[in-house]
Structures are given as C-alpha cells and as structure tokens.
Design goal:
Elements: H1 3-29, H2 46-68, H3 70-76, H4 82-103, E1 110-113, H5 117-140, H6 143-146, H7 149-156, H8 178-188, E2 192-194, H9 195-223, H10 225-233
Antiparallel strand pairs: 1-2
Helix pairs in contact: 1-4, 1-7, 2-4, 2-9, 4-7, 5-8, 8-9, 9-10
Length: 243
C-alpha cells in the first residue's frame, strides 16, 4: 500500500469511526429523532432479544480485545502494513458497532423511571459529561494516534513514531482510566432505564472491566516499574486525589 493510499485509508476509517461514535451517543441516549436506538428497533420475545443482544455485545468485545493484543498485532502486521494497522482496527471496531446498532433488539420492560425533574436533569448532565470525558481523554493520550491518523501521517513523511512515554496529563493525574470512566457514566446515567438498556450497560461494563485488566498488564510490560508506581498512586475509575 503506497503512503498516499495509506493516508487516504486512514482518513476514511477515521471519518467512519467519528460518524459511528456520534451515533453511539444517539443510540445509548435513545434520542427521539433516531429511528434505531437502544429502546427503538425490531421486536422479539424478551429471551430471544436478550440472546441476540448478548451475542452482539460479545462480538464487539471480542473484536476490541483480540485485535488490541500485542501478540495479535505482531502477526496481523505481517498482512497489514504497520502504518495502517491502527486504522484497520478502528474500521473493524466501527463495523462491530454498526452490527450492534442494526441487530439490536430492545427489551422494553422498565427497570427504573426517574420522574423528579432535578434528578432527571442531573442524570442528563452526567450522561453528557461522560461523553465529554471520553472525548477529552482521547486527546489527552493523543487522539490522532489512537485512531490511526498520526501513524499514516508520519508514514507519509517517511518517519517512525518515537518511543512511547508514560505521561499523566489532566485526568490521568487522578485516575488511570478516565476514558472508561466516561463510558461508565454515559451508559448508566439514564432517567428511564429499560431492561434492554440495562443489558447493554451491564454487558459493556463487564467488557470494560476485563479490558482494563488486559490493558494494565500490557502497560506494565511496556513501562515496568514506572507504571506500577503510577498505578499505585491513582484511582482506577474513581479519582484518587493526591497531595
């Protein structure tokens, strides 16, 4: 793959990702203008719907976990050019989310319904703050590298990425996984929680807790004692403020 094609491919994958990410907000928030959301979609008996939805969550989780592992990357880059590897990952993740959107079967039973206007407003604030935390966190750890654009851009100039550095910008001074914390906020802050929404929140929360363990293991292998000291001094998902 030529350097120009790699760059164009990375831009296309990023555009698909960004559109998918925006629709994820709409999907989880059950925003009224959308025709397919966590609570709007094809009907099925509750057990059938739950089995389909669990399979979709598992597909998304497996794609994310397997393709993110260093051992998989080492083999994968024998087929995919290294500068395009991250873009392929981003594209695969976007496709997995699209399958979840299209195949999701709502389960309409109400688990809770907050009617207090103040509490409802607070939950919506937490919902949007969660997505904001996710977006800000991606920029703190290098947004364009995370989604494959930087690798393709550096490849255009015949350059290679430098050695990874263990940095602690902003949120990362108090919490090790602010990006995941933002997702937790966004998935669980719902004034009206249906059984289908609860299934999505539980399924993705379990995936994230498992992913955190693998991610921390990889970071420990990469940074060694420096990461152990950092991790001991900050919270995981809840901030631990230090003097």
């Amino acid at each position: 793959m030529s350097r120009t094609l790699t760059m164009l491919f990375a831009i296309l994958c990023y555009a698909i990702f960004f559109a998918t990410f925006l629709y994820l907000i709409v999907f989880v928030g059950d925003l009224s203008f959308a025709s397919v959301t966590v609570d709007v979609g094809p009907e099925a008996p509750p057990v059938t719907a739950a089995l389909i939805d669990i399979a979709l969550i598992a597909l998304f989780g497996l794609q994310h976990s397997v393709m993110a592992r260093p051992a998989f990357k080492a083999k994968w880059t024998r087929i995919v050019p290294p500068p395009a590897e991250r873009s392929v990952y981003v594209l695969a993740a976007s496709i997995a989310l699209m399958f979840l959107f299209i195949g999701w079967h709502p389960i309409g039973a109400i688990v809770w319904n907050v009617r207090n206007p103040l509490l409802t407003s607070l939950l919506w604030v937490i919902f949007w703050a969660g997505w904001g935390t996710v977006l800000v966190s991606t920029f703190l750890i290098n947004h364009f590298e995370l989604f494959g654009l930087q690798q393709a851009w550096m490849n255009m100039g015949g350059r290679q990425a430098g050695k990874p550095e263990l940095r602690q910008p902003f949120f990362y001074k108090w919490v090790a996984h602010p990006l995941y914390a933002g997702f937790f906020m966004a998935f669980w802050a719902a004034p009206e929680m249906t059984a289908g929404h609860l299934l999505l929140a539980v399924g993705l929360s379990v995936y994230m807790l498992v992913a955190i363990r693998y991610e921390e293991r990889d970071l420990t292998d990469l940074f060694g004692e420096d990461y152990r000291r950092y991790r001991a001094g900050v919270g995981g998902l809840i901030p631990r403020f230090r003097r």
